[in-house]
Amino acid sequence: MPGDLLDGDKLRPGAGTYVEDGKIYAAILGIKTIKSNYVNIIPMGGRYIPCVGDSVIGKVEDIGPSNWLIDINAPHPAPLHVNEVPWRVEFGDTARYMNVGDVILAKILMVDETMRFQVTMKDQGLRKLQDGQIVEISPSKVPRVIGKSGSMIQMIKGYTNCRIFVGQNGRIWLDGEVDNIMHAIKAIQMIEEDAHSFGLTERVKEYLEGVTQQTSPGSE
Amino acid sequence: MSGTPSDIKLIYENGIRIDGRKADEMRPLKIEAGVLKRADGSAYLEWGKNKIIAAVYGPRECHPRHMQNPAKAIVQCKYNMMSFSVSDRKRPGPDRRSIEISKIISEALEYVVFTENFPRTSIDVYIEVLQANAGTRVAGLTAASVALADAGIPMKDLVPAVAVGKADGQIVLDLNKEEDNYGSADLPIAMIPRTGEVLLMQMDGHMTMEEVDKALGYAKKACQEIYEVQKDALRRRYAMSGGDAGEDDSSDEEA
Q1: Which has the closest alpha carbon to A41: B195, B174, B250, B59?
Q2: Residue-wise pLDDT tens digits, B186-208
Q3: pTM
Q4: Among A63, A156, B84, B133, which residue carries the largest CB count within 10 Å?
């Protein structure tokens, strides 16, 4: 809760906290966690704030002669320079490669203290996304969708046979059979709604088991 | 608003006010957080006969461009009264009063939000008064701060606010419509309960020094109460769907 005193004199202030008169207080609404001498608050909501190295799903918003502007769900659009794409692009030839409305998988290249950031596509697996669907969830729920070392997302992938990619900015790309995509989206929405409750994995598993059993005899 | 003389009796001989409250008693307050799906944060508040909804969007790109600050976010607030919120139809649209209230509320909120975390952005707060019965600016601010916390925006503290006034020569807490219209002073106050910092104070009418002191005392006590209601609203927001409010330990599983 913002303004709440977080006890512990030996601890140091981490994310989502602030210090006043040598005491640590919470700055955001969330769950208190203590990790290696730091008190952190895991947020319950809020907009996406880019972090270096985050994989994100972006939409091309605007094209310049040597760059694209990518909407990554952050407060500002992020520029993607032609040097940061896997193709060789002539000056002024940007529109031939990507156009407004295209969806890409990108990585945050840098963020500076004035919150200016840039994205890159020069890394393994980063590409333009074709086909599939995008769903948006609250960025603070992304860790839950992924689960402990990817357990949740692996489970959804396994049951629905979809290709799924979760961007840190709360956008999720899915590709596969239409019915399966719908089930996966349902599961993701379930996770988003009950993100902070116990036994979530079991409930999602139950749901997925239920729907896959329903559909598999029908499709045969 | 300041005291049109009338023969209405606002306080009975036994010290009970026309709506049955004591001098230092608030109207019943109810807040619910997270009522709007499309907003980043929202809150609905009922305070006596006041009904207010507040929504927060952002931090998002600031338009118009020239208003953005390269060093910090700006808090833009829009206070609006619905045309059906008062007994005579209110002409819709911004007027002198709502522009003033928007300004003071955004200044009060700007002080608590860590604006330096989000340079070049704006945090937009919309306050809609659905039904008004005196004290809407403090009610609006109270709701707006809950909505801000709900939006996950880092801030020093929640901001409870309350109005204190003078009716029939007596200091009373949380004026209602009649006391506001026929009383002789109105003093809206917002303060951070933990530090006692005052974020908003306006005065309409006249009070002596002693009366102001007494009013501040009332306000301080009331703010503490409101603060608890605000926190409770935020707690309930996440307690509803499974688990209870006491889950703020390290019991969550993280990726």
Answers
A1: B250
A2: 999 999 988 889 999 999 999 99
A3: 0.85
A4: A156
Name the burial class of residue B70, with classes exposed (0-12), middle (13-18) and buried (19+) by CB atoms within 10 angstroms of its CB.
Answer: exposed
Note the ipTM here.
0.81
Phi and psi based region of residue B34 (left: phi greater than 0; alpha: psi -120 to 50; beta: remaining): left
Give contacts of A147 with chain B, Cβ < 8 Å.
Answer: 253, 255
CA distance A132 to chain B (A): 24
Provide the Cα torsion A20, A24, A27, A28; round to 10°: -170
Calpha distance A85→A82 (Å, rounded)? 6
Q: How far apart are the first and last CA of chain B?
A: 57
Domains of chain A and any CATH numbers: 12-43 (2.40.50.100), 55-129 (2.40.50.140), 133-219 (3.30.1370.10)
Would the pLDDT of A217 be above 70?
Answer: no
Record: contact A33-B154, CB cut-off 8 A: no
Domain at B29-237, CATH homologous superfamily: GHMP Kinase, N-terminal domain (3.30.230.70)
